[in-house]
Specification:
Elements: E1 2-9, H1 13-31, E2 35-39, H2 44-50, H3 56-63, E3 67-72, H4 89-97, E4 102-108, H5 121-124, E5 129-135, E6 145-149, E7 154-158, H6 164-179, E8 184-189, H7 195-207, E9 215-220, H8 221-230, E10 237-240, H9 242-255, E11 265-267, E12 273-275, H10 294-306, H11 311-326, E13 329-330, E14 340-341, H12 344-354
The structure holds nicotinamide-adenine-dinucleotide (NAD).
Nicotinamide-adenine-dinucleotide (NAD) binds near residues 72, 259, 291 and 292.
Length: about 350
């Protein structure tokens, strides 16, 4: 039996997590796996109940689980709070405390959604499948930051810092992933300007000798943001630091038709790993039935593969999503490519029906 910590969070978080739970329940029956679900409040929901975005109890609940499925946190209700009290601290603290340093973000275009993407088919290619490996516990989000009030000016700063070890461990994972895919790794940085990027390049190029079957190339982040639109098919695995990875993966999500399609897995040296859609809490559509739960459902599929070694069950979820999209079903965000626009829970029900059907 695997214990899964469900952390719905705010906005559309609870809506998408309950669809993923629905799918995992179907997997239990069909694949004879047993899950125990435990639930905790995070983000704004935790602030409202306990005054903090993540309680020690919920952190402990996560540490005692085999894997964590996270919805999303944040919303205008809590935007006025000081940085350390904001809902987003919940996910940052979880990543840091659980040492989840590598965030895997697969960017896959399901064929049925080619029309939902604003990018023309000829640019998307036939088989868009990119893996973005984003470093998750270093860089700007965790470096020294502050605000200083001078006599005439206010100065704010965030520091981008990386150690060689931080780079090496995530790079090792990216090389290994590339080796098991098409064997092509692109390091994305800004080494023409940033000292941290120069360290990334030095370390990654040194490590390349240990991976003779992986072709390594380098790209500046500004060029990469353009190349992702112009010629996404050139990429196999992209390795990049925290902030660049955050921004580039939101951009890459557009290739797939919607940000509601992109799952992620956050891995470290020890379990539990954490799984979450790459999007936020989408307060603008919360409670309307417009949220696309597929990114969250595909995050659960990644959990089955990476945390539990249940590859067939994971594949069954991906296949079910594929079939449902092929039949023309989609949520509101996919309306440009869908024949039948259905609600969050309706698409969850339809995907559930297709689990295990070949
Ligand atoms: P967002 O990702 O929540 O939303 C951006 C746009 O995409 C919105 O128009 C939204 O409606 C749409 N969208 C997002 N997910 C969708 C889905 N599953 N289905 C359909 N449409 C979807 O980003 P934002 O608006 O910049 O941020 C909203 C809040 O989320 C903020 O408080 C932010 O800090 C927080 N946030 C949290 C996380 C996280 O919990 N990991 C990540 C990013 C942003």
């Amino acid at each position: 039996m695997f214990t899964i910590a469900l952390l719905p969070g705010d906005g559309i978080g609870p809506e998408i997590i309950s669809e993923a739970e629905k799918i995992l329940n179907a997997v239990e029956h069909i694949f004879n796996i047993k899950f125990q679900f435990v639930e905790g409040l995070v983000g704004g929901a935790s602030i409202d109940a306990h005054g903090v975005p993540l309680t020690e109890e919920v952190l402990q609940l996560c540490k005692n689980s085999d894997a964590i499925l996270f919805g999303a946190v944040g919303g205008p209700k809590w935007d006025h709070l000081p940085k350390e009290k904001r809902p987003e601290q919940a996910i940052l603290k979880l990543r840091k405390d659980l040492n989840l340093y590598a965030n895997l973000r697969p960017v896959v275009l399901f064929k049925a959604l080619a029309d939902a993407s604003p990018i023309k088919q000829e640019f998307l290619g036939d088989d868009l499948d990119i893996m973005i490996v984003r470093e998750l516990t270093g860089g700007l989000y965790f470096g020294k930051k502050g605000k200083e009030e001078g006599q005439n000016h206010v100065t704010a700063f965030d520091t981008m810092e990386y150690t060689d070890d931080q780079i090496r461990r995530v790079a090792r994972l990216a090389f290994n992933i590339a080796r098991n895919r098409k064997g092509h790794l692109t390091l994305v940085d800004k080494s023409n300007v940033l000292e941290t990027s120069r360290l990334w390049r030095a370390i990654v190029s040194e490590m390349a000798a240990d991976y003779p079957h992986v072709k390594l190339n380098y790209m500046y982040v500004d060029n990469c943001s353009m190349q992702l639109i112009l010629n996404p098919a050139q990429f196999d695995v992209i390795l990049t630091e925290n902030t660049f990875g955050d921004i580039l993966s939101d951009e890459a999500s557009v290739l797939t038709g919607s940000i509601g399609m992109l799952p992620s897995a956050s891995l470290g040296d020890e379990k539990p790993y954490l799984y979450e859609p790459i999007h936020g809490s989408a307060p603008d559509i919360a409670g309307t039935g417009k949220a696309n739960p597929i990114a969250c459902i595909l995050s659960a599929a990644m959990m089955l593969e990476y945390s539990f070694g249940e590859k067939s069950a994971s594949k069954a979820i991906i296949n079910a999503v594929n079939k449902v999209l092929d039949e023309g079903y989609g949520t509101f965000d996919l309306r440009a490519g869908a024949k039948h626009v259905v609600s969050t829970s309706e698409i969850g029900d339809i995907i559930k029906k297709y689990i295990g059907i070949d």
